[in-house]
Write a structure and sequence with these properties.
This protein is 50% helix and 9% strand. With 233 residues, the protein is α/β, with parallel strands linked by helices. The protein has two domains: 8-83, Methionine synthase domain (Methyltransferase, Methionine Synthase (B12-binding Domains), Chain A, domain 1, Orthogonal Bundle); 93-207, Cobalamin-binding domain (Rossmann fold). The chain is globular. It starts with 7 loop residues before the first helix and ends in a 26-residue tail after the last helix.
Length: 233
């Protein structure tokens, strides 16, 4: 089966069914197969994010329980961990990912991090509910090339406009999530990422690109950066 003929809608339905059954082995195998054949971008946007939304909607409607939300989060994080191979070499760049204080849903940001990792970024995730001082400390300590801050509440960004603007003086800062989209204007110096995750990854990759010494990575026959394809034993 070629990469163009793996039906990701069928994979999505199978992952959703395995989630209902709390079948972690099936979820893992289905996702790793999709990642191997279709790559990170397609699997994240066409399988993993839609499943997250469906689980959330079914939980709100009473069709699934909180156990399913915890299960899918744990399962997806486990698969992401298997993908997180070392990124080395002079062309590798470092990005810090974080959700601001009181923002608890960091899995979509983790999935976005996997897409950046496939573009040869070292991804350092600080997770949910991260103080702005900790984000700034991580950026400085790592000499990060970019920082992405994501959240669902507008107030999470409004209360931290000065901190985000100060951070943006030293590193490209990108804001994302419904909270960022609800702002009348982005914090000075920051960039609001597109809702489309592939477009957002391209924006980060381009705006935070190294000024010298960059080299293009080989692409697959499907035009996907070679690093965007997962491998497994």
């Amino acid at each position: 089966m070629t990469s163009d003929h793996l039906d990701l809608s069928a994979v999505r339905a199978q992952v959703m069914a395995a989630t209902r059954d709390l079948d972690g082995s099936a979820v893992r195998d289905l996702l790793l197969d999709a990642l191997l054949v279709r790559g990170v971008d397609a699997t994240v946007t066409s399988v993993m994010m839609p499943v997250l939304r469906s689980v959330g909607e079914d939980w709100e409607a009473g069709r699934l329980g909180v156990v399913h939300e915890h299960f899918v989060s744990s399962s997806f994080r486990g698969v992401l961990g298997e993908l997180r191979l070392p990124v080395d070499g002079p062309q590798a760049r470092t990005v810090v990912l974080a959700c601001p204080p009181h923002e608890l849903h960091d899995l979509p940001l983790e999935l976005f991090g996997a897409m950046l990792h496939a573009r040869w970024w070292r991804v350092v995730s600080l997770g949910a509910n991260t103080p702005m001082t900790a984000i700034g400390d991580a950026v400085r300590f790592l000499g990060a090339d970019a920082c992405v801050v994501a959240g669902v509440r507008r107030s999470a960004f409004e209360a931290r406009v000065p901190s985000l603007s100060r951070l943006a003086r030293n590193v490209p800062v990108f804001v994302a999530g419904e909270g960022a989209y609800a702002l009348p204007e982005p914090p000075p110096g920051t960039t609001v990422l597109p809702r489309d995750l592939v477009e957002a990854a391209v924006v980060v990759d381009r705006l935070a690109a190294p000024t010298t010494g960059a080299r293009e990575r080989p692409t697959t026959a499907a035009g996907v950066p070679d690093g965007a394809r997962a491998t497994r034993d």
